[in-house]
Amino acid sequence: DYHIPVSGGILKEPATHIVHIAVEMAPIAKVGGLGDVVTSLSRAVQDLGHNVDIILPKYDCMNLSNVKDFHFHQSFGWGGTEVKVWFGKVEGLSVYFLEPHNGMFSVGCIYGRNDGDRFGFFCHAALEFLFQSGSCPDILHCHDWSSAPVAWLFKEHYRHDGLSNARVVFTIHNLEYGVHHIGKAMTHADKATTVSPTYSKEVSGNPAISPHLFKFHGILNGIDLDIWDPFNDNFIPVSYTSENVVEGKKAAKEALQQRFGLRKSDLPLVGIITRLTVQKGIHLIKHAIGRTLDRNGQVVLLGSAPDPRIQNDFVNLANQVHSSHADRVRLCLTYDEPLSHLIYAGADFILVPSLFEPCGLTQLIAMRYGSIPVVRKTGGLCDTVFDVDNDKQRAHAQDLEPNGFSFDGADPSGLDYALNRAISAWFDGREWFNSLCKRVMEQDWSWNRPALEYMELYHIARK
Ligand code: ADP
C-alpha cells in the first residue's frame, strides 16, 4: 500500500525535531517545485507544533531581503576550509546558511557549476555542522539527488556519533535527475517518499526504486495557503474568495489583457506557467497555443527554458504569433513570480500537459485561484485533477467533485480532446463554468493532510 494511514494518535506525542538539508528553498532560492515543498511542508509541520530547521547553502545569488534577523551564527573548520554559518528566518522558519570559505556557492547561480561536487560538499558540511554543534535531531530529511548524499554520509560517518538518534527520510521530487545518487540514497534511507501516489506506482519498476518498495511511500504535495491566497495577494487587482470569484477573476483578466495589449473582450483565456523542458510537454504546449487561437481564445504563456535551443525555439514562435495574433496571445519567456500570480488569477484555464509529472504544483495553485486545470493524466496530475466527464466516480471515492479536464495520450489529438471540451464548456455554459470555478476554489489542496502523513511517516521511521 502506497498510502500512509493517518491515525491521529501522533498528535499527542512530544514535539519531533526535523532538520531539512536542501539546496532550494522558496522564495529565496527557488528553481522549481522542490523549493516550494521545502518551505511549505516545513511550515505545515511547524504549525503542528514540531521543531523544524533548514540547512541551505549560502548562495551569493540569494535575495537576503526576504530573510529576517539575518546574522552570523558560528563557524567551523572542515574539509580543508572554514565554513561560516549564518542564521535567519524565512517565512517564519529557522534557516542555517552554510558559507564555505572556498567560495563554492558564490558562483552566481544555484545549479550549473560542478553541482555534484558542490552539493556533495554541502551535505557533508551540513552533517558536520549538526555534529559539531551538538544538535540531536530526530529526523534528517533530504531531497532529490542534490542532498541524497546525506543518506549515505550519515550512515557512513555520523550514525555512531552524537547524531545517533536521527533517522533519515529521503524524498524524490523527480527521478529524472541523478538517478545514481537517488539509488544509493534509497539503499541507506530509513524511509523514502515521492510526491504523489500515482508517481510512486509509475516509478516502482525503476531499478533504483524496486528493491526498496517496503519503505517507499507516495505523499501528495500541498500548497501553502498563505503564499497562494487570492484574498490576500499584492499582485492581483481585486481580492477574492469563492464568493466573489467571478468579479475577482474578471478584474485580473482585464489587468492581464491590459498589461500585454491583448484585446479586452470576454474570451476564454488559457494560461501556461512552466519550465520549458521536454518533461512539460513542449510539443503539446505549442499545439495548444494554435488550438486555442483557432477556437477564438486567448493565451498567456509564462515560461523559461534552461536549454538555449528550446528558449530560441520559443523566441521564434513568440515572434511569429505576436505578429499574427497580437491581440490574443503573449509568450513571456522569463521567470517572473509576481506575473505568475496575475496569470493564475486572470486565466480561465491553466494547461499542464506534462509527459510525466511527479506531483505538479501549478494545477493546485490554479484551483486555489479558481482557474480550471486542463492536464495530462500522469503522476500527481492524475491524483489531483478529476475530469468533469470521465472521473466522477474516481473523484467521489476521494470525497471530491470533479474539477477539471484531462487526457491520456501524449499526441495532439489527446490534448485536443481535453482542450476542446474545456473551451466549449466555457462558451456554452457560463453559469455552469462559473460554478465550477467556485467549486475548485473550495477544494482543499493545502498541506493539512499531507503534513499529517509526513508526521506519521517520521513516527514510523523512529520506531
Ligand atoms: P517543477 O518543479 O517541475 O518546475 P511544479 O509544478 O512542481 O514543477 O512547480 C513549479 C513551480 O514553479 C510553481 O510554483 C510555478 O508557479 C513556478 N513556475 C514555473 N515556471 C515559472 C515561471 N516562468 N515564472 C514564475 N514561476 C514559475
Structural write-up:
- This is starch synthase.
- It is found in: Plastid, Amyloplast; Plastid, Chloroplast.
- Belongs to the glycosyltransferase 1 family. Bacterial/plant glycogen synthase subfamily.
- This protein has 463 residues and is of the alpha/beta class.
- It folds into two domains: 9-222 and 448-462, Rossmann fold, CATH 3.40.50; 242-442, Rossmann fold (3-Layer(aba) Sandwich).
- It has helices at 33-47, 115-132, 144-147, 149-158, 179-188, 197-202, 245-259, 282-294, 308-324, 337-346, 362-368, 379-384, 392-396, 412-428, 430-442, 448-462; strands spanning 17-21, 51-57, 68-78, 81-90, 93-100, 139-143, 167-172, 191-194, 216-218, 269-275, 298-304, 329-332, 349-352, 372-376, 405-407.
- The protein has a nine-stranded mixed β-sheet with strand order 3-4-5-2-1-6-7-8-9, sandwiched between helices. Strands 12-11-10-13-14-15 form a six-stranded parallel β-sheet, sandwiched between helices.
- The longest helix is centred in the first third of the chain and has 18 residues, at 115-132.
- The radius of gyration is 22 Å and the shape is globular.
- The structure holds adenosine-5'-diphosphate.
- Adenosine-5'-diphosphate binds next to helix 1, strand 10, strand 11, helix 10 and helix 11.
- Adenosine-5'-diphosphate (ADP) is lined by residues 32-33, 36, 273-275, 302-304, 335-337, 340, 359-362, 365.
Task: List the topology elements.
Layout: E1 17-21, H1 33-47, E2 51-57, E3 68-78, E4 81-90, E5 93-100, H2 115-132, E6 139-143, H3 144-147, H4 149-158, E7 167-172, H5 179-188, E8 191-194, H6 197-202, E9 216-218, H7 245-259, E10 269-275, H8 282-294, E11 298-304, H9 308-324, E12 329-332, H10 337-346, E13 349-352, H11 362-368, E14 372-376, H12 379-384, H13 392-396, E15 405-407, H14 412-428, H15 430-442, H16 448-462
Helix pairs in contact: 2-4, 4-5, 7-10, 8-14
Bound molecules: adenosine-5'-diphosphate.
